C-alpha cells in the first residue's frame, strides 16, 4: 500500500494555479513509431506525443527516427523523449536534434541525474513514479518522491511492473495520497473506457492532471492483442473524447 501523505511542502513545481486553470486535461499519446500515427494524434487534439528511446522497448525508436517524426509536429504540440537509465551525454545528444523536447525519465535516475541530463535544469522533464500493484506490494511514499523530484515539471504515475517503461497495467488509483504538491500525469493501463474515471479520481490529488496513453490506443492484431507501436486513429479519437467528458464534469462543478 502507499504511505499516507505527510503535510505538503512547497517546491518550484507546486505554485497554486488560478481557479479554473486546471480544468483542461493535457493529453500525451506515447510510443509513436509511424508518421500516420503522429498525424492522427495531432489531428485528434493531443497536446504532446511521446517517443521511446529505450532499446529494450517494443515501441523503441532511434534518436534519428524520433527527430524525423518530431519534425511533423505543428507549433504547441510537445515532443516527449522517454529514457531509461540513459547516460547524460546520450540524453543531451538526442535532445539537441529536437530542441523543443521535454524529457521523461522512467528508470532509476536520481534527482541529480535528471537535472544533469535535462541540461542543468534548463529543459523541462517528467519523472515517472512506479506505483506498486496490489495490497502486498512494498510501501511507496509518493509525496516524499514528489518532494525529492521537486524540479520536475510533473510526476508521472505508472504501475510498477517487471522491467522498465510502461507496462500497460493500471494501478489502484484510490490508494494515491489525497494531496500531492506536484503536477501529475496519470499513466498505466488507460483506455477510452476508463480514462474518464481515472481523471475524476486523480485530478483532485495534484496541482493539475495530464494523461498519458500508449497501449490503450493501439491497433488490435489478428489475435486481439495490441500491435505495439501501431496506433488506431479511432481509438485515439475516442480516448480524447473521454478525456473531454471528464473535463466537462469538472467545468460544470467549478
Automatic annotation (TrEMBL):
<keyword id="KW-0822">Tryptophan biosynthesis</keyword>
<keyword id="KW-0028">Amino-acid biosynthesis</keyword>
<dbReference type="GO" id="GO:0000162">
    <property type="term" value="P:L-tryptophan biosynthetic process"/>
</dbReference>
<dbReference type="InterPro" id="IPR013785">
    <property type="entry name" value="Aldolase_TIM"/>
</dbReference>
<dbReference type="InterPro" id="IPR011060">
    <property type="entry name" value="RibuloseP-bd_barrel"/>
</dbReference>
<dbReference type="InterPro" id="IPR044643">
    <property type="entry name" value="TrpF_fam"/>
</dbReference>
<feature type="domain" description="N-(5'phosphoribosyl) anthranilate isomerase (PRAI)">
    <location>
        <begin position="27"/>
        <end position="240"/>
    </location>
</feature>
<dbReference type="Pfam" id="PF00697">
    <property type="entry name" value="PRAI"/>
</dbReference>
<comment type="similarity">
    <text>Belongs to the TrpF family.</text>
</comment>
<dbReference type="InterPro" id="IPR001240">
    <property type="entry name" value="PRAI_dom"/>
</dbReference>
<comment type="pathway">
    <text>Amino-acid biosynthesis; L-tryptophan biosynthesis; L-tryptophan from chorismate: step 3/5.</text>
</comment>
<keyword id="KW-0057">Aromatic amino acid biosynthesis</keyword>
<protein>
    <recommendedName>
        <fullName>N-(5'-phosphoribosyl)anthranilate isomerase</fullName>
        <ecNumber>5.3.1.24</ecNumber>
    </recommendedName>
</protein>
<keyword id="KW-0413">Isomerase</keyword>
<dbReference type="GO" id="GO:0004640">
    <property type="term" value="F:phosphoribosylanthranilate isomerase activity"/>
</dbReference>
Amino acid at each position: 500500500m502507499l504511505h499516507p501523505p505527510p503535510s505538503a511542502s512547497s517546491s518550484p513545481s507546486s505554485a497554486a494555479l488560478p481557479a479554473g486553470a486546471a480544468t483542461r486535461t493535457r493529453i500525451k499519446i506515447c510510443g509513436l513509431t509511424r508518421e500516420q500515427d503522429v498525424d492522427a494524434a495531432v489531428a485528434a487534439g493531443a497536446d504532446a506525443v511521446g517517443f521511446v528511446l529505450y532499446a529494450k522497448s517494443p515501441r523503441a525508436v532511434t534518436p534519428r527516427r524520433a527527430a524525423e517524426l518530431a519534425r511533423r509536429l505543428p507549433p504547441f504540440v510537445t515532443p516527449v523523449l522517454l529514457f531509461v537509465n540513459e547516460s547524460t551525454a546520450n540524453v543531451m545528444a538526442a535532445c539537441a536534434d529536437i530542441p523543443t523536447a521535454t524529457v521523461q525519465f522512467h528508470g532509476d535516475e536520481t534527482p541529480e541525474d535528471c537535472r544533469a541530463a535535462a541540461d542543468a535544469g534548463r529543459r523541462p522533464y517528467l519523472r515517472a513514479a512506479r506505483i506498486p500493484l496490489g495490497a502486498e506490494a512494498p510501501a511507496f511514499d509518493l509525496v516524499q518522491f514528489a518532494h525529492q523530484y521537486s524540479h520536475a515539471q510533473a510526476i508521472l504515475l505508472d504501475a510498477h511492473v517487471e522491467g522498465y517503461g510502461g507496462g500497460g497495467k493500471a494501478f489502484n488509483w484510490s490508494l494515491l495520497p489525497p494531496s500531492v504538491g506536484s503536477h501529475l500525469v496519470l499513466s498505466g493501463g488507460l483506455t477510452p473506457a476508463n480514462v474518464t474515471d481515472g481523471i475524476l479520481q486523480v485530478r483532485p490529488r495534484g496541482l493539475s492532471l495530464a494523461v498519458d496513453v500508449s497501449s490503450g490506443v493501439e491497433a488490435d492484431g489478428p489475435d486481439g492483442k495490441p500491435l505495439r507501436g501501431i496506433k488506431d486513429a479511432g481509438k485515439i479519437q475516442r480516448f480524447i473524447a473521454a478525456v473531454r467528458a471528464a473535463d466537462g464534469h469538472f467545468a460544470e462543478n467549478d
